[in-house]
Amino acid sequence: MKLHTSLLTLMAALAAGSASAAGTPAGTAITNIATASFLDPKDGTTPTESQSNIVTTTVLPKPGFDVNFATTTVDGNTPVAPVPGATSGAGYYPSGYAKTDVVPTTAGTNVDTKYTLVNTGNSVNPVSLVADVSATGTSVLPVVEYYLDLNGNGVVDPGDTLITGPVSIPVDDPLTPADEGQVTIIQRVKIPVGVPKGSEYFVSPQGTGQQYVTATSTTDPAFVEPSNDLQYTYIKIADPRVDITPPADTNPSTPGNTPPAPGPIPGPVGPVTDPNTYPAPLPPGAPATTPPTIIAVDPATGDQNAYPPADAGTAPDVVTFISQVTNNGSLPDAVVLIPPTGLPAGTTVTILDGNGNPIAPDANGNYPLGTIPVGGSVPFQVIVTYPDPDGSATPVPSIPVVIGVDSGNDPDLKPDTSGTFTVNPPNVVFGDTAGTTADPTKFPNETVIPGKATGTGVDQTDSSAVFPMSIVNTGTYPESYTIAGSVVLKVIDPLTGAISDQTVPVKYYLADANGNPTGPALTTTPVVAPGAQLTLVAVIDVPANTASTTANGINTPLPVTQAIVGTYSGITRSDNNDTVSVGVTNTGLSGIQITKTQTSANTNALPGKDIQYQIVAKNNFNAPVRAFFLTEQSGVVGTGTNTGTTTNLFTYSTYKSVAASANFGGTLLVRFNNAAWQPLASATAPANVTRVDVGVDNNAGVLDGVITSADTVPSTGVITVDFTTTIK
Hints:
Elements: E1 6-9, E2 29-32, E3 35-39, E4 47-51, E5 55-58, E6 65-69, E7 98-102, E8 109-119, E9 125-136, E10 143-148, E11 167-169, E12 182-191, E13 200-210, E14 222-224, E15 233-237, E16 263-267, E17 270-274, E18 277-279, E19 294-297, E20 304-307, E21 317-326, E22 333-338, E23 348-353, E24 367-372, E25 377-386, E26 399-406, E27 417-423, E28 428-434, E29 437-439, E30 445-448, E31 464-473, E32 481-492, E33 499-505, E34 507-511, E35 517-522, E36 533-541, E37 550-551, E38 554-555, E39 558-566, E40 572-574, E41 578-582, E42 610-618, E43 625-633, H1 649-652, E44 653-662, E45 667-672, E46 677-679, E47 691-697, E48 712-713, E49 718-727
Parallel strand pairs: 7-15, 20-27, 30-41
Antiparallel strand pairs: 1-44, 2-5, 3-4, 3-43, 6-8, 8-12, 9-11, 9-13, 10-12, 13-14, 13-15, 16-17, 18-19, 19-20, 21-25, 22-24, 22-26, 23-25, 26-27, 28-29, 28-31, 31-36, 32-33, 32-39, 34-35, 34-36, 37-38, 39-40, 39-41, 42-49, 43-47, 43-48, 44-49, 45-46, 45-47
């Protein structure tokens, strides 16, 4: 009988070498000669060996690099002030990378931190370095220099040269225990003379080098480390001042409402930390809000800015301010508060005392605070109620509320000073791009053709659904947004025909001037300024086996779910009316296809990729041969036409699987590392395979589980072995 194909798939140990490297160096030639051992049929007793032709696979470049903190495996942080105890994410800085209370000198001050350039690929990779620098509290940016750290001590010593061009990172040799693929550098930040007190700098090296993207190394582009892979050093200039900032504690029963406490406020590049903030008190009887409103206080003027969060309701929103009037004169003073005028439509202002009780207005409509002794203070509250802007496409203005303060020790009723209490509401519109705005009511449908190439346009002839999307910040302060979307597709199992749901995510890209996607996919947008539009491209790549949405001539498009969330305000917007139609196509060359396969040509010879060999051994003798088996191993010395070649298959690749078949009767056996023979269909490979033998046990009809001289391959008998290894 003819044996059916059996398959053995057994994963071996991890490739040798450093975990940071991509594996076998580019240009390495992996050579292989298969050998056949048998008894010479001329006498039936002489051991004989034949060799196959040489198969040589040259490992291709798979370039890659990374710039890391030198003291931790955590890679990447964000340019925000340090958060005590943070071990990752925003506010995390490894030990030694948060330099606080740096004192500038007239001679200049250097802040040095240590970084490591890592070659994560298998080819020498020249990497160019620039500094990504941002600052708060100053517009003067420092000069940043990079030095080669020859002894790795993190200090610029004599001989540590200034880097003026690309730094070539060597390749790690996977056959050695050391990691040669690293270069240590020092980042030197030269603090400007006269930088304002309390200023902050965020400085990270940003590398540009080759990064693997395809199986053809010539197409690997210059790759710039993305912003989410940078690793910042934090520098804060010392600020020795001691400030007393309003408001004072006006309600001892709720001390948490009034003392100043740091909190985030929007800045020109998104939320930053302002030390002069406090959580706004709740209006009387109001439920707690999450997150709370943040109010920033000007310690010099007492003016306040509120940044309320978004909410899910449509009821009017309320912000409560706490302030106080201080008598800095030389006489006791009967002070009154003058209510604001010219408020926006629908906005009301209520003035209460420090405990939240109403103040009866006087005959002039002003609010008396009573007589304040010299040096004394009297608190009061300002409650601003305004229409909820959520969901409006109309830009929302800030609401300034000016409260006048009139002294009773002068003859007029004019304010002697005033305080401005400004509400800055958030708002945003998210939807399909409509010129210079976003339209959440549009419902475009994109048709895709499974199995076709992916694309980035809306031509409806590829396997990608593309939707131009926009975010328009109609609020009053800058904000970034997290963005996510998905569509549930019906996918066909190519083997069983079963159909199951598969959730495919939407990938979001920034749109260029022509509306095409640019840069890496986003999960968080850049900061969008008030009144600005951010144009995006939403791309959905459907799997090749996706079922059509057309049945019985009726198309039922699939809805795409999309949503954004403000990273500061928490405002949420969704657009769930875009749809995808899946067209009818053939998954093969024709509608009814019968396929025969042949082993690949090993053109994608990259670390981590498989090398597939097919060995076909045919008995061209006109007599059977005995004790026949095929062998794959390293160290085979070529003879005849192979003279001068020594194989290194298992030096640079790892055993993965073997499959075999024969056109004659018997049981396929396999043997690893010259150990015992096993049935191939149920064999177990050791962790480290250095030799594989395959033969057929037929024993003239008596199977004994080993290959001996009693096992024969008939004339014209063929054994086919498909052998797979993985490049280290």
